[in-house]
Write a structure and sequence with these properties.
- This protein has about 300 residues and is of the alpha+beta class.
- The chain has two domains: about 170 residues, Nuclear Transport Factor 2, Chain: A; about 110 residues, Cupredoxins -  blue copper proteins (Immunoglobulin-like), CATH 2.60.40.420.
- The strands form three sheets. Strands 2-1-6-5-4-3 form a six-stranded mixed β-sheet. It has a five-stranded mixed β-sheet with strand order 9-15-14-11-12. It has a four-stranded mixed β-sheet with strand order 8-7-10-13, with no helix packed on it.
- It is globular, with a radius of gyration of 20 Å.
- It starts with a helix and ends with a strand.
Length: about 300
């Protein structure tokens, strides 16, 4: 177990590294009130909501950056160690992250890769005091933005495999060796209940499964998307949840073994089974369109 000091450092720093940087050399940035009328989010083309918020954030204009986000926007952070998944909901939480980024001498470069309907896909390169200090900057990622009425309704930020490898190497050098501890005995279960609501999924049972058939009850309380999905995976022993969540764009990598996929309509409840033979097992929840990972549960140990 890492020391509390290092744990707090990593949690605080990694929670804010995704929008990162170098100290701005210009004079104090203009306030939101000083921006020209044509700079308002509502007047901007769909991709300009993305580039506009990056420009304001790079200028240290917290209010100007947040003006491009819907009040109930969701910001997903996928692949960052040690958790591998984080979700920020609403301007207050997103603004807290932006405020810390500005204080850490951020810089963010955005290259729009494509626009389809209300979805913008971009390559995002970031710098941050912490990533520069540990030699992991710049951090590269792919971000998928959903734009509604000219504002960002959600951003899903996926760290690249190359940047994840750099971060893991740097963090491993910072952490002291973990002492061996006795693993508590947990009674394995053969049934799990997963709920999709509030932009993510949740489960409150033990993280131990009995080998064989596992019965799943999926309760989709969310209504905002056309469909939702449950998926289960095995991954190779040297990989972890951060690796899995970083790989949720494109085809599954060779080290991922999909076990099951179940799609469910919004507001519906579904019951199904899948079979597990070995652990660890990870659950990932999805929403569509666009196809985005919105939650992760695991790892589950498997008991034979």
């Amino acid at each position: 177990m890492m020391t509390r000091q290092i744990s707090l450092l990593i949690s605080a720093a990694l929670g804010t590294l995704i929008l990162a940087g170098c100290t701005a050399q210009a004079a104090a940035p203009p306030s939101t009130a000083e921006l020209p009328a044509t700079h308002t989010p509502a007047a901007a083309p769909i991709s300009s909501a993305v580039t506009g918020y990056a420009e304001r954030l790079n200028a240290g204009d917290l209010g100007g950056a947040l003006a491009y986000f819907d009040d109930s926007a969701i910001f997903y952070i996928l692949g960052l160690p040690p958790e591998g998944f984080e979700m920020l909901r609403g301007k207050e939480q997103i603004g807290g992250m932006f405020e810390e980024n500005i204080a850490s001498h951020f810089k963010m470069e955005v290259q729009v890769l494509g626009v389809e309907d209300d979805v913008v896909t971009a390559r995002v390169t970031t710098w941050h005091d912490f990533t520069r200090e540990i030699g992991a900057a710049p951090v590269e990622a792919t971000s998928i933005y959903v734009i509604k009425d000219g504002k960002i309704a959600s951003e899903s930020w996926h760290v690249s495999e190359e940047s994840l490898a750099k971060l893991k190497t740097a963090l491993a050098e910072m952490m002291p060796p973990e002492p061996e501890v006795d693993t508590p005995t947990v009674n394995p279960v053969s049934a799990v209940g997963v709920t999709i609501a509030g932009g993510t999924c949740s489960y409150d049972g033990p993280l131990a499964l009995q080998a064989g058939a596992v019965a799943v009850t999926l309760d989709v309380q969310a209504l905002g998307k056309e469909k939702y999905a449950f998926s289960a995976f095995n991954i190779e022993p040297e990989k972890d949840l951060a690796d899995l969540m970083a790989s949720t764009i494109g085809l599954p990598p060779s080290w991922v073994d999909p076990l099951y996929l179940e799609e469910v309509a919004p507001g519906e409840r579904s019951q199904f089974e899948f079979t597990v033979e070995k652990g660890p097992v990870y659950i990932v929840c999805w929403s569509s369109p666009p196809d985005l990972a919105i939650g992760a549960i695991g790892p589950f140990n498997v008991v034979k």
